[in-house]
Design a protein that fits this description.
Largest sheet: 3 strands, mixed
Distance between the termini: 41 Å
Number of helices: 6
Shape: globular
Strand content: 5-15%
Strand order of the largest sheet: 1-2-3
Radius of gyration: 19 Å
Structural class: alpha+beta
Order of helices and strands: HHEEHEHHH
Helix content: 25-40%
Low-confidence stretches: none
Number of strands: 3
Length: 186
Protein backbone atom coordinates (compact mmCIF):
# COMPACT_ATOMS: atom_id res chain seq x y z
CA UNK A 1 0.00 0.00 0.00
CA UNK A 2 2.85 2.35 0.80
CA UNK A 3 4.53 1.77 -2.58
CA UNK A 4 1.23 2.06 -4.43
CA UNK A 5 0.59 5.40 -2.69
CA UNK A 6 3.99 6.63 -3.93
CA UNK A 7 5.43 7.07 -0.43
CA UNK A 8 9.22 6.77 -0.21
CA UNK A 9 9.88 6.12 3.47
CA UNK A 10 13.62 6.80 3.09
CA UNK A 11 12.88 10.37 1.98
CA UNK A 12 10.27 11.29 4.56
CA UNK A 13 11.39 14.06 6.93
CA UNK A 14 11.94 13.16 10.58
CA UNK A 15 9.22 14.38 12.91
CA UNK A 16 7.85 13.68 16.36
CA UNK A 17 5.31 10.91 16.91
CA UNK A 18 1.71 11.97 17.46
CA UNK A 19 0.34 11.69 20.98
CA UNK A 20 -0.33 9.54 22.80
CA UNK A 21 2.52 7.54 21.26
CA UNK A 22 5.01 10.42 21.10
CA UNK A 23 5.69 10.73 24.79
CA UNK A 24 6.99 7.71 26.60
CA UNK A 25 8.44 6.73 29.93
CA UNK A 26 11.21 4.43 31.00
CA UNK A 27 8.49 2.19 32.38
CA UNK A 28 7.14 1.69 28.86
CA UNK A 29 10.61 0.93 27.53
CA UNK A 30 11.36 -1.85 30.01
CA UNK A 31 8.16 -3.72 29.10
CA UNK A 32 10.26 -5.47 26.45
CA UNK A 33 12.44 -7.38 28.89
CA UNK A 34 11.52 -10.03 31.42
CA UNK A 35 10.64 -8.36 34.72
CA UNK A 36 10.01 -5.01 33.05
CA UNK A 37 6.23 -5.18 33.20
CA UNK A 38 6.44 -6.10 36.89
CA UNK A 39 8.87 -3.31 37.64
CA UNK A 40 6.85 -0.71 35.74
CA UNK A 41 3.64 -1.78 37.48
CA UNK A 42 5.25 -1.72 40.92
CA UNK A 43 6.55 1.81 40.35
CA UNK A 44 2.97 2.98 39.98
CA UNK A 45 1.27 0.62 42.44
CA UNK A 46 3.70 1.50 45.21
CA UNK A 47 3.10 5.20 44.79
CA UNK A 48 -0.69 4.87 44.55
CA UNK A 49 -1.00 2.57 47.57
CA UNK A 50 1.65 4.07 49.84
CA UNK A 51 1.01 7.67 48.81
CA UNK A 52 4.69 8.41 48.32
CA UNK A 53 7.28 7.58 45.66
CA UNK A 54 9.31 4.39 46.01
CA UNK A 55 12.65 5.09 47.66
CA UNK A 56 14.17 3.69 44.44
CA UNK A 57 12.23 2.90 41.27
CA UNK A 58 14.95 0.44 40.32
CA UNK A 59 13.28 -2.80 41.38
CA UNK A 60 16.35 -5.04 41.14
CA UNK A 61 14.55 -8.22 42.21
CA UNK A 62 12.60 -8.27 38.93
CA UNK A 63 15.67 -7.78 36.75
CA UNK A 64 17.97 -10.25 35.07
CA UNK A 65 17.62 -13.38 33.04
CA UNK A 66 17.03 -15.95 35.78
CA UNK A 67 14.14 -18.19 34.78
CA UNK A 68 11.97 -17.39 37.79
CA UNK A 69 12.51 -14.37 40.03
CA UNK A 70 10.53 -13.75 43.20
CA UNK A 71 10.29 -10.92 45.69
CA UNK A 72 8.18 -9.41 48.40
CA UNK A 73 7.15 -5.76 48.33
CA UNK A 74 5.88 -3.89 51.38
CA UNK A 75 2.95 -1.68 50.41
CA UNK A 76 2.22 0.30 53.57
CA UNK A 77 2.26 -2.81 55.74
CA UNK A 78 0.75 -5.19 53.20
CA UNK A 79 3.27 -7.71 51.96
CA UNK A 80 2.77 -8.42 48.27
CA UNK A 81 4.57 -11.44 46.85
CA UNK A 82 5.51 -11.21 43.19
CA UNK A 83 6.96 -13.61 40.64
CA UNK A 84 8.49 -13.06 37.22
CA UNK A 85 9.00 -15.96 34.80
CA UNK A 86 10.16 -16.21 31.23
CA UNK A 87 10.05 -19.19 28.85
CA UNK A 88 7.13 -21.56 28.78
CA UNK A 89 8.99 -24.11 30.91
CA UNK A 90 9.23 -21.61 33.77
CA UNK A 91 5.68 -20.42 33.18
CA UNK A 92 4.53 -24.02 33.56
CA UNK A 93 6.20 -24.25 36.99
CA UNK A 94 4.33 -21.15 38.20
CA UNK A 95 1.05 -22.27 36.63
CA UNK A 96 1.36 -25.72 38.21
CA UNK A 97 1.66 -24.04 41.63
CA UNK A 98 -1.47 -22.01 40.92
CA UNK A 99 -3.44 -25.08 39.83
CA UNK A 100 -2.24 -27.00 42.91
CA UNK A 101 -3.31 -24.14 45.16
CA UNK A 102 0.21 -23.71 46.53
CA UNK A 103 1.21 -20.49 44.79
CA UNK A 104 2.15 -17.78 47.29
CA UNK A 105 2.10 -15.01 44.68
CA UNK A 106 -0.27 -12.08 44.39
CA UNK A 107 1.11 -10.67 41.15
CA UNK A 108 2.78 -12.69 38.39
CA UNK A 109 4.44 -11.66 35.13
CA UNK A 110 5.03 -14.32 32.49
CA UNK A 111 6.84 -13.80 29.19
CA UNK A 112 7.01 -16.78 26.89
CA UNK A 113 10.12 -15.75 24.94
CA UNK A 114 13.56 -16.19 26.52
CA UNK A 115 14.36 -12.85 28.15
CA UNK A 116 11.01 -11.43 27.03
CA UNK A 117 10.57 -9.57 23.77
CA UNK A 118 14.30 -8.83 23.72
CA UNK A 119 14.71 -12.52 22.87
CA UNK A 120 13.21 -11.87 19.46
CA UNK A 121 9.65 -13.00 20.07
CA UNK A 122 8.23 -14.90 17.12
CA UNK A 123 11.47 -14.75 15.17
CA UNK A 124 12.84 -17.84 13.39
CA UNK A 125 16.44 -17.07 14.46
CA UNK A 126 17.27 -17.72 18.08
CA UNK A 127 19.13 -14.99 19.96
CA UNK A 128 21.98 -16.17 22.17
CA UNK A 129 22.24 -15.38 25.89
CA UNK A 130 24.90 -12.69 25.41
CA UNK A 131 22.66 -10.77 23.00
CA UNK A 132 19.67 -11.10 25.34
CA UNK A 133 21.75 -9.79 28.24
CA UNK A 134 23.03 -6.85 26.16
CA UNK A 135 19.48 -6.00 25.07
CA UNK A 136 18.27 -6.30 28.66
CA UNK A 137 20.92 -3.85 29.86
CA UNK A 138 20.15 -1.46 26.99
CA UNK A 139 16.49 -1.32 28.07
CA UNK A 140 17.49 -0.11 31.53
CA UNK A 141 19.95 2.43 30.12
CA UNK A 142 17.09 3.83 28.04
CA UNK A 143 14.82 3.76 31.10
CA UNK A 144 17.30 6.01 32.93
CA UNK A 145 17.77 8.28 29.92
CA UNK A 146 14.07 9.05 29.48
CA UNK A 147 13.72 10.91 32.77
CA UNK A 148 10.06 10.06 33.30
CA UNK A 149 10.23 6.55 34.68
CA UNK A 150 6.68 5.89 35.90
CA UNK A 151 3.74 5.06 33.65
CA UNK A 152 1.31 7.21 35.60
CA UNK A 153 3.53 10.28 35.06
CA UNK A 154 3.24 10.12 31.26
CA UNK A 155 1.57 13.42 30.24
CA UNK A 156 -0.40 11.73 27.46
CA UNK A 157 -1.74 9.08 29.86
CA UNK A 158 -2.67 11.76 32.41
CA UNK A 159 -4.53 13.70 29.74
CA UNK A 160 -6.35 10.57 28.57
CA UNK A 161 -7.65 9.96 32.10
CA UNK A 162 -8.55 13.61 32.65
CA UNK A 163 -10.44 14.02 29.38
CA UNK A 164 -11.93 10.59 28.71
CA UNK A 165 -11.32 7.69 31.09
CA UNK A 166 -12.03 9.54 34.32
CA UNK A 167 -9.97 7.79 36.94
CA UNK A 168 -7.86 4.63 37.16
CA UNK A 169 -10.10 1.67 37.98
CA UNK A 170 -13.16 3.82 37.23
CA UNK A 171 -16.11 2.52 35.24
CA UNK A 172 -14.96 3.72 31.78
CA UNK A 173 -11.35 2.56 32.21
CA UNK A 174 -12.54 -0.77 33.57
CA UNK A 175 -14.86 -1.36 30.62
CA UNK A 176 -12.26 -0.42 28.01
CA UNK A 177 -8.93 -1.51 29.49
CA UNK A 178 -9.62 -4.61 31.54
CA UNK A 179 -9.88 -8.18 30.32
CA UNK A 180 -12.29 -10.72 31.67
CA UNK A 181 -11.46 -14.40 31.59
CA UNK A 182 -14.01 -17.18 31.57
CA UNK A 183 -13.53 -20.90 32.03
CA UNK A 184 -13.88 -22.74 28.76
CA UNK A 185 -14.76 -26.38 28.41
CA UNK A 186 -13.64 -28.42 25.45
Amino acid sequence: MIVRAGIDIERLPDEEFDDPLGRSTGAATIFGTTGGVMEAALRTVYELVVGAPMPSVDFQSARGLDGIKTAEVDLAGTKVRVAVAHTLKNARAILDEIVAGSSPYHFIEIMSCPGGCIGGGGQPVRIDAAKRLARNKAMYVEDLRLGLRKSHENPAVKELYETFLGKPLGHVSHELLHTEYKRRTF
